[in-house]
Inverse folding.
């Protein structure tokens, strides 16, 4: 009896926290998750990338900056830098295992949760969890949908079609959409999509970013790349 | 994302200070008064430029290329061709910025960030060559062959963004050779000017619209 009650509680609360990980017939028939279908295109080794970043806010307000990302995948270090097109440094920060340290930030980029949100955006786009452990996958009409739990009780979803198109979505613990990204254009041999578009939904910020690769390279990361 | 919105509403005037300082500063002389006189005599400028952004996190400088045009008394077109197409226009006190998106130029929000007052102060200061009267930087003439104008920020707030600007004058009277902007953290931006033409006729429309 106690075991049944426990199982009932687990089912109620467990699935309530991970609503998107329940079986979902609308997504098609369950299929074994495969890395080829469920992985997310991004460099597999430490890298440095420069993107032209178009930032769009509600009411059609837009601006363009240059973004530099240095990622050391092995040690969990990430550096993000924003430059104006004129070359002026607007923002510079390092994140080591989720602890973010801001080296330089012009007002108002020096306040509030800007750094944390920027790091979250970059990690979502360039540093997703690609383990196939715990993934559930469905297929319908040639489209494969994969979902996996993330660290904060949220869900990460990839949608891939045979054409190579790939969409990445991030949901919170209640199944509400936070971020959505789509890659387009060719993917470089190093694993950089030529173009990416990120929609950050109102719960996470309400803006969008369009990124176009300027240059990207795999690197052997040295400590100096992450020092102020 | 409130902070992002704030950024677009109230960016520092430093960017425009740089833009305005660099293009019209074509001059040569033995003191700032001579510089001022040389600048006042210039009616128009057109040139190409190569901008090298140096940072220790980059394996090589980030290169940007473009053109600029200046027409006295207050028209400016500062145009990047690569890596991101972008145009800044100043036309008789009105400033507009455009970025290339989806195959066409579209207004860039940052043109609305800057207080028009600051922009106009910078423009008028450069047209007059009155570096000494500039509220953001203190100027001094240094070196010889080539001569250099060194600009130091007057406030600590500005020094957090720009530590120093060095304008190197060309051997050709009235022509600037380079502008180097030194920032905190061992970062710098070097702008080299080439194919400089002085006082060539420039149509008004290039300061009023894109492309």
């Amino acid at each position: 009896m106690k075991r049944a009650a426990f199982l009932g509680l687990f089912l109620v609360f467990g699935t309530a926290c991970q609503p998107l990980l329940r079986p979902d017939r609308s997504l098609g028939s369950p299929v074994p998750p495969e890395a080829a279908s469920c992985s997310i295109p991004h460099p597999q080794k430490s890298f440095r990338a420069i993107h032209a970043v178009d930032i769009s806010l509600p009411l059609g307000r837009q601006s363009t900056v240059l973004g530099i990302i240095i990622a050391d995948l092995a040690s969990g270090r990430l550096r993000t830098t924003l430059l104006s097109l004129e070359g002026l440094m607007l923002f510079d920060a390092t994140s080591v295992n989720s602890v973010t340290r801001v080296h330089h930030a012009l007002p108002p980029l020096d306040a509030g949760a800007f750094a944390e949100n920027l790091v979250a955006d970059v990690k979502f786009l360039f540093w997703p969890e690609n383990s196939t452990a715990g993934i559930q996958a469905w297929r319908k009409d040639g489209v494969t949908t994969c979902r996996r739990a993330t660290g904060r009780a949220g869900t990460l979803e990839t949608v891939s079609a045979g054409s190579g198109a790939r969409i990445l979505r991030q949901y919170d613990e209640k199944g509400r959409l936070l971020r959505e990204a789509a890659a387009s254009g060719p993917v470089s041999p190093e694993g950089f999509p030529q173009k990416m578009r990120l929609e950050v939904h109102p719960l996470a910020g309400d803006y969008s970013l369009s990124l176009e690769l300027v240059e990207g390279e795999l690197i052997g990361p040295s400590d100096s790349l992450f020092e102020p | 994302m409130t902070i992002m919105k704030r950024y677009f509403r109230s960016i520092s005037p430093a960017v425009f200070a740089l833009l305005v300082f660099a293009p019209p500063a074509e001059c040569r002389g033995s003191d700032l008064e001579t510089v001022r006189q040389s600048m006042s005599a210039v009616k128009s400028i057109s040139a190409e430029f190569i901008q090298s952004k140096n940072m220790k996190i980059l394996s090589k400088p980030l290169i940007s290329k473009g053109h600029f045009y200046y027409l006295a008394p207050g028209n400016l077109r500062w145009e990047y061709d690569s890596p991101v197409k972008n145009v800044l226009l100043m036309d008789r006190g009105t400033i507009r910025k455009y970025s290339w998106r989806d195959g066409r130029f579209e207004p860039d929000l940052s043109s609305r960030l800057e207080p028009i007052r600051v922009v106009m102060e910078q423009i008028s200061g450069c047209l007059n060559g009155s570096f000494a009267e500039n509220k953001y930087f203190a100027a001094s003439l240094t070196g010889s062959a080539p001569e250099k104008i060194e600009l130091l920020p007057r406030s600590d707030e500005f020094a957090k963004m720009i530590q120093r600007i060095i304008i190197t004058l060309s051997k050709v009277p009235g022509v600037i050779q380079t502008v180097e902007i030194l920032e905190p953290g061992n970062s710098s931006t070097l702008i080299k000017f080439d194919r400089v033409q002085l006082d060539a006729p420039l149509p008004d429309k290039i300061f009023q619209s894109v492309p």
